[in-house]
Amino acid sequence: MEKKVVLITGCSSGIGLSLAVRLASDTSKVFKVYATMRNLAKKERLLDCVKGLHQDTLEILQMDVTDRQSILTARDKVVEKRVDILVCNAGVGLMGPLEVQSLDSMRHVLEVNLLGTIQTMQVFLSGMKAQGQGRILVTGSTGGLHGLPFNEVYCASKFAIEGACEILMTTSSLLTEILKIKKYCSITCGPVNSDFLINLQKAELGDSSLQQVDGRTLSLYEKYLQHCSTVFQNAAQDTEDIVEVFLDAIHSASPAFRYFTNSVMPPLTKLKVTEPDGMEYIKAMSKIIFADQDQ
Ligand SMILES: NC(=O)c1ccc[n+]([C@@H]2O[C@H](COP(=O)([O-])OP(=O)(O)OC[C@H]3O[C@@H](n4cnc5c(N)ncnc54)[C@H](OP(=O)(O)O)[C@@H]3O)[C@@H](O)[C@H]2O)c1
Questions:
Q1: pTM of the predicted protein model
Q2: Test site for ligand 1: of 9, 136, 199, most ligand atoms within 8 A of the Cβ
Q3: Percent over 90 (pLDDT), the chain
């Protein structure tokens, strides 16, 4: 049987690495995985996980989603000359009071999470259209559906990708009749145990950059950091749990547009839909994080 060709971005750690390992190890041997990462010096971790047993199901390629040429070069190295499933997973975080974020930091997050994802899709889209089939999965975030305090630019990038994917899904369902192709799925994650927090650009409380920030904002930020650390300690999912949701989307004959990794819509997201003026959501979020703060 012809293998399904899967190309995944951001496989040096976290969700991308786990997904690459899982698909390349699938006992059915139905997948050929192109695990891409921007820095091949980091490939040992992935190789350690597959223990050299996957010569026929795994290739590791260099790809930086902010560098169009590297995306084109990776595409040209796909031996099968087609990608059946594209997983846009690479992403970075940025946290802190908005007034201390440098233009470079903000630009970097938007370049990786937004433009990087979009230009990766662009490069593979025409091939999928030409071959008459394909599926694009994006690692989304609850921060792409509702705002998270002190994550303005990260959320902006993830909201924007949700919008772009909704549009692509709308036009692809119109095209499906003709082309039998293209499903876009957003796999919406809450907190996940990965290298995300290590790689996150975060303003630390002692940073000199925070000296310009007013005391009230700083105290809210401190509270938010405590909240984050509790949430990651108590409620973060393992990457293997996220991979199971990807597998649902990959195996489904008619995948949904959005999959929540906790299987139910998070209550805060629901509030945005049921209370469209937005104020109930704002109040609920403030209460959860800053409950005993003098508002
Ligand atoms: N962890 C969470 O709590 C969480 C929650 C919701 C959504 N997500 C999303 O899940 C996705 C994967 O994150 P993760 O949790 O697995 O974190 P992670 O372990 O930090 O993985 C992020 C991956 O993206 C790669 N990357 C960063 N910039 C890149 C670029 N310019 N080109 C190519 N790859 C690049 C990183 O490579 P390097 O090693 O080279 O930096 C790394 O392989 C992200 O899109 C993130 O926004 C994560």
A1: 0.95
A2: 199
A3: 79
Q: What is the largest CA-CA distance in the chain?
A: 63
Domain architecture of the chain: domains with CATH: 4-211+238-263 (3.40.50.720)
Question: pLDDT tens across 36-64, in order?
Answer: 999 999 999 999 999 877 889 999 999 99
pLDDT (tens digit, 9 = 90+) per residue, 135-180? 999 999 999 999 999 999 999 999 999 999 999 888 876 665 544 4
Distance 24 CA to ligand 1 centre (A): 19
> Which parts of the chain are beta strand (E)?
4-8, 31-37, 58-62, 85-88, 94-95, 135-141, 183-189, 192-193, 201-202, 237-238, 258-260
DSSP string, 36-61: EES-GGGHHHHHHHHTT--TTTEEEE
Ligand-binding annotation for 12, yes or no, is yes
